[in-house]
Amino acid sequence: MLPQTRPPLRSTLPPQDLPGAHNSPLTQGREFLWSDADFARIQALIYQKAGISLHAGKQAMVYSRVSRRLRDTGHNSFKSYLDRLEQHDGPEWQEFINALTTNLTAFFREQHHFGILHDLLAARRTQHWRIWCAAASTGEEPYSIAMTATEALGSNGHFSLVSSDIDTKVLATAARGVYKADGVKGLSPERLQRFFMRGKGANAGFMRVKPELQKPMEFLSANLIQELPFREPFDVVFCRNVMIYFDTPTQRQVLERIHRVMKPGGMLFVGHAENFSDARNLFALRGKTVYERL
């Protein structure tokens, strides 16, 4: 008796879930199809537009952030979204950049820099100081700089502070200068009283920067891999924890641009993990992650 034959089994899985359908394991359980080719395109585009170098370990982060743009724009695949992005030079490019920038900040982060800044400014109180904060994020860093400058220069001192960022959403938050009370709890009672207003009623639980601290400050969008929109040179530049997102050639290009908008002898403050020993003809180390413009 011949054994009974069965028709070949047919998979009930959708095509995208079949083995070998995509070359990335991150496809499984995802809302959108996700391939290594999608990630490679995003890597190339964010490098082209913002100089940000994404390594392979960032796939999950990139999927999570860019998939929000797919939902907001009504696209059902990364390919469709990226095709549209490349074909139209419109506002979605800024949203794409905003989605992929990282914004970690706090008031008086890397505290030693503000002691150095205070002493630098206090030594020449009669000078009008021009300061640039090149990665303002949500504002904690530029307001820390402004508080330090106000304390160092006194009531008769003069300074102007330009605060920029490539991410327009965080820059808008910085310009508003409103923070949850928990976000400023690291500041001394004296600084809170001098520089902030406490919210009441519907604004209870929030703190707002006083207008007099914001008066010498300007907020604008700037892309460090493009020509910088400044006419007058700066005495002090804070560009902290930015270069870590660039590869070596891009770092060099950005340092050259910063060098061009600084006065000779100006001071550059950088992040604790950043080292510019390859740019000795541009900057000389003068302290812990503090460089002098040559």
Fold and architecture overview:
It is a single chain. With 294 residues, the chain is α/β, with parallel strands linked by helices. The chain folds into 2 domains: 80 residues, Chemotaxis receptor methyltransferase CheR, N-terminal domain (Chemotaxis Receptor Methyltransferase Cher, domain 1, Orthogonal Bundle); 182 residues, 3-Layer(aba) Sandwich (Rossmann fold), CATH 3.40.50. Helix content is 36%, strand content 18%. The protein contains 10 helices and 10 strands. Strands 6-2-1-7-8-10-9 form a 7-stranded mixed beta sheet, sandwiched between helices. Strand 7, helix 10 and strand 8 form a beta-alpha-beta unit. Helix 2 packs antiparallel against helix 4 and helix 5 packs parallel to helix 6. The longest helix has 15 residues. The termini are far apart. The N terminus is likely disordered.
What descriptive keywords fit this protein?
294 residues; alpha/beta; Chemotaxis Receptor Methyltransferase Cher, domain 1; Rossmann fold; 2 domains; 3-stranded antiparallel sheet; 10 strands; globular
